[in-house]
Amino acid sequence: MPRTPALDRPLPDLTGRLAVVTGANSGLGLEISGALAAAGADVIMTSRDETKGADARRELLARSPRGTLEVRSLDLASLDSVRAFAAQVVAESRPLDILVNNAGVMAVPERLETADGFELQFGTNHLGPFALTGLLLPALRAAVEARVVSTASIAARPGRITREAMAGETPYDAWRVYSMTKLANLVFGRELQARSVAHGWGLTSVTAHPGFSTTNLASNGPRFGKKPIPQWAMKLSLLVGQTGADGARPSIYAATAPDVEPGGYYGPNGRRELRGGTTHAEVPAGALEPGVGDLLWSESERMTGVRYA
User: Out of 178, 253, 265, 266, which one is annotated catalytic?
Assistant: First the structure.
């Protein structure tokens, strides 16, 4: 039985609104992009692979002709790519109404590094979105009530954020690092809201997680290490979890609901937040530790060189 009634509702008319969705060529990002465009938004879909992005765009155009869909290249594991993408959006002088930081990698089996020398999961899942949001701040501030959505995970529950973990100075454990990065997404979303209020940026920052969605299984590519995902695992995930379309619902709600809670956290309303309609999610203990927001923010500024102003 659901823990609480679902908050999901039809999307408002988004005609004339501009949205950026990262990691939009598949999974949650594809579903979020499609929903926003179907409501009338002009959506910039980002993808590391422009060919896959173009294929995703064609799929969504076949579903609904409303809104517009444009594919642009963005690699969150490269700060140069992040800067180039953000500079293009800002230079176009159009207010950015919705930013959905969705792209990420999951439990990369061995320790790899980004183009800038950061551990790959932390660099892609947190530092890239942190830099992107900060560099897009002029376009976001130009909008009326801009919305920023961060994508966390139920895997954030055991996570802890420390200076050593962020610097990649602890022994590499794929799932422990993934958990920390997803906790960082939640802490960032909450801290962004607090700083927006303090500095008058006019943003509404919200975080969502998809529960146990089948797309999570493929977030580090189609394979775990060198072994393909077995069919039984995919079938089991649908029994205890939900499809990518259902997993996208909390993020879609966070991006569009008029009465969303600023700084709020949303996820599925089923048992252990694995599946179901959208409701308020439980905030993990690691996100409530004193000073964790300031620590994450200061280290992120230092590592990326991006300061919000």
Answer: 178
Active site residue 178: yes
* Arch. (CATH architecture) of 18-304: 3-Layer(aba) Sandwich (3.40)
Task: Report pLDDT digits (tens) over 80-135.
Answer: 999 999 999 999 999 999 999 999 999 999 999 999 999 999 999 999 999 999 99
What pTM value is reported for the model?
Answer: 0.93
Cα angle, residue 128 at apex, residues 85 and 133 outer, rounded to 5°: 65
Locate the domains of the chain by residue range: 18-304
